[in-house]
Amino acid sequence: MPRNAAIKARERSERPAGRRNLVDIVGQQLRQEILGGVLKPGEKLPSESGLTDRYKVSRTVIREAIASMRADGLVEARHGVGVFVSHARPFPVAGLLNSDSGRISSIIEMLELRAAVETEAAGLAAARRSPAQDEAIIERFEDIDRAMERGVATSEADFEFHLAIADATNNPRFREFLELTGKRAIPRSFLQDQADEIASADYLAGIQTEHRHIAEAISDRDEHGAREAMRLHLKGSQQRYRSLIRRNS
Fold first, then answer.
1. For tag attachment on the chain, is the N or C end more exposed, with fewer CB atoms within 10 Å?
2. Locate the HTH gntR-type domain: which residues (predicted)?
3. Chain-wide mean pLDDT for the chain?
């Protein structure tokens, strides 16, 4: 099959939900190479066409995956030159840089537990949510957007978003679990000693993109997509904190 025809065929096969999964898969693999030292700070990533050939996906998927990594501070684009692995710490929450590794290890343990519970919660929410519960999830998502626009802390709105998903399972034990975790459910607030969290706009935008994928899958009643979006969201958080431990050690 000619190259252009093959690319068009891939693009036709990438429906919105499927494309989101491909973006997450490509992004996670590139993240692992960066965080694992395969791609080193200052090193140029392969070209867009090179990544397209490597992962057998469309340019749109590659662009979205790169945009997600830029939001996390892992890469930086240089106009007319290409995309490079960032020299900066790939975790743009200022208050975390001096946190002790034991405390961060506790956060990772909590994130692993949350992943086990909330991944299933997202799938159940997609299957069971009522129209009102779907609307509540969207409203809590938009609350995070509004907090970001005002430049205020987003942790509380973030927590309410996850609680809305727990409610949509129609199993009260999921909400009880999250409420028991309290402030620890949103790690960036738990590790902050100051009253207000300090996080870059790009970092929060990346987190909000992950939230959107979760909310859209639940709204679409896509059980598999909702589980996968939640898993990738919490798995990504674990990877960011593990990277922080390695850099502080």
1. C
2. 20-88
3. 79
